[in-house]
Amino acid sequence: MSTYWVRRPEGIKMSSHLITHLRHVDIAMPDLTQQLVFYRDLWGLTEVANDSGVHFLAAEGSPEQYIVRLRRDDLKRLDLVAFGAASMADVDELAAQLVKADVALVHAPRALDTPGGGYGLRFFDIDGRVVEVSSDVAVRKHRKIEERESIPVRLSHFVVNSPNPEATVAWYEQHLGFRLTDTMALPHMGGFMWFLRCNNFHHSLAIARGPHVANHHVSFEMRGIDEYMRGTGRLLRAGVEKLWGPGRHKAGDNTFSYFLDRAGNTVEYTTELEMIDEDTWHPTVFDATEPDVSDQWGTANAMNEYVASKSHNDPDKGVFVAPPI
Fold first, then answer.
1. Residue 262: Cβ within 10 Å count
2. What is the pLDDT of residues 158-174, one digit of tens each?
3. Which CATH class is domain 154-312?
4. What's the predicted TM-score (pTM) here?
5. How far apart are CA 257 and CA 242, in angstroms?
6. How many Å apart are CA 155 and CA 64, to the nearest integer?
7. Are strands 154-162 and 214-221 parallel, antiparallel or unpaired?
8. Which of 30, 172, 257, 269 has the greatest number of beta carbons closer than 10 A?
């Protein structure tokens, strides 16, 4: 395997580590009914609240109030991606840093009226996505996922497409304090996916090179290998289109089975995402032409143009437009 160390881009000043974890991903689409049935009845999430056609879905094993929010809209779009902060003071500090850096706020820190409440702000990232950062959200009563129970334990990570990923990576490093864990590269194009962390999970966010701004995939952690395979089988038996998998990636050492939801977004069942020691970790560039980098097991279908195009998704219609809720 070809590996080498990479350096952080020159001139990037790190913010303090104010982001603690990934909370939820909120998406909108024209056909809300089919999407709700998919995530609740097939994917294995639990509807915990709904308000005026907005549905909040939790993972039974997660203390987060919800990990997916669904909303009907005439356009297919990402409403927002939400991260946690440790305290109201950290939210205020982040807001002050963003304002000083001329980052456009959707709203300043305030009390939130979504399930669990809390205190948070929203702002646009460099590509026009809405990002929310919140603290003091009430913990949801959750439970241990049992053996052979093939439903998500928690939200694992979120991957987005950017036509200028180097700038997007630098933006998240500079303004939100994310750290580069690893990079995937191809000889003819260089880097095409950057894995970023905000805690000791290998990645909570990744940035992929794509033709336009869009969601790449949303990943959900399962209890273990058996539960991951049972969930994969349930989706296959239900006739849900599988894009790629089952297999096991090199970067992150996690399993993968990618499917399409009812709006054409890619979603993933995974498990065993690598935990790292931040004090000793050095980023590595992985050569994706080596077969075991994409899939250590050799069990997944080949990554081809069709799989790649579906992962590129449709252009996000919500860029630099704040969601109504």
1. 17
2. 999 999 999 999 999 99
3. alpha beta
4. 0.94
5. 7
6. 9
7. antiparallel
8. 269
